[in-house]
Design a protein that fits this description.
This protein is α/β, with parallel strands linked by helices. The protein contains 10 helices and 8 strands. It has a 4-stranded mixed beta sheet with strand order 3-4-5-6. Strands 1-2 form a two-stranded parallel ribbon.
């Protein structure tokens, strides 16, 4: 398996559990995924690569991969190497440079697109998602199973969520508004925020994150865990207006404004 570092680490954990090797390609300095380096890693290990993992928008950074770079990746690696494109957060992208990769599936390319109901539909407790891929590729994957099944209530809950486009549009609008408001306040305090295309963002605290996470917990505010590759970045999910207000109030008590902000 070839993928970015950091990215959604459950995939790497499963690979380790199956005694499979994985190659982690570091992000670029601006936290975008390094597509040329990914292509090079695949070519250098072609016979051993089972698939490429591309999370877009990426978790935990929130940065999406532009459609031109997805095309660059698919055209730059051997055609028989499957590419798993994780679109868990695709509903929140509002950038014309982005596009879903489902058309590649319809073209018969070795692409698997995965999505979840845990984000825009807020049905995380149902543990429901789906994959879109060419039938021959799905047939190859079917013997491995998914480790579980769904009941009728979960299935019809998913169908209802797919049909409820009005709620999805409302959630996206409110989420992007609150994300913009909160990240603007953090930047005004002097803390850089990675541009995000998802329902979360990462802010650079310039100090180890773990003690800060613990201080937030003491105030009843839960924020993301530290990431080994980004130990000074705090991952924050966008909640309700009240929740984001509580987050900012706690932030100002826990993390002091930087000198750059205080001198304005």
């Amino acid at each position: 398996m070839v993928g970015a570092e950091p990215s959604y680490d459950i995939l790497y954990q499963h690979a380790t559990g199956l005694k499979a090797d994985h190659i982690k390609v570091p992000l670029l300095p601006d936290f975008r995924q390094d597509i040329p380096a990914t292509i090079a890693a695949v070519k250098a290990n072609y016979r051993e690569v089972g698939f490429v993992y591309l999370c877009s928008p990426n978790n935990p950074t929130g940065r999406m991969v532009p459609k031109q770079e997805v095309a660059q990746l698919l055209d730059g690696i051997p055609e028989d190497v499957p590419v798993l494109i994780d679109e868990a957060y695709h509903h929140f992208v509002d950038d014309p440079a982005y596009a879903t990769s489902v058309p590649y599936v319809l073209q018969g390319r070795q692409v698997i697109v995965t999505r979840t109901f845990s984000k825009i539909a807020a049905l995380a407790g149902m543990r429901l998602g789906y994959a879109i891929a060419p039938k021959p590729l799905l047939d190859r994957l079917r013997p491995y199973g998914g480790g579980g099944s769904i009941n009728a209530i979960v299935k019809w809950g998913g169908v209802a969520a797919l049909n409820d486009t009005a709620s999805q549009a409302w959630v996206k609008r409110v989420t992007l508004e609150l994300r913009g408001k909160t990240t603007g306040e953090l930047q005004a305090l002097g803390y850089p925020v990675i541009p995000s295309d998802a329902n979360f963002f990462m802010v650079h605290l310039r100090r180890p994150v773990q003690p800060v996470v613990e201080e937030f917990r003491k105030k009843g505010v839960l924020v993301g865990r530290p990431f080994t590759a980004m130990p000074e970045h705090l991952r924050v999910s966008v909640g309700t207006a009240d929740e984001m207000g509580r987050f900012m109030a706690a932030f100002k008590e826990i993390v002091p404004a930087t000198k750059a902000a205080s001198n304005r």
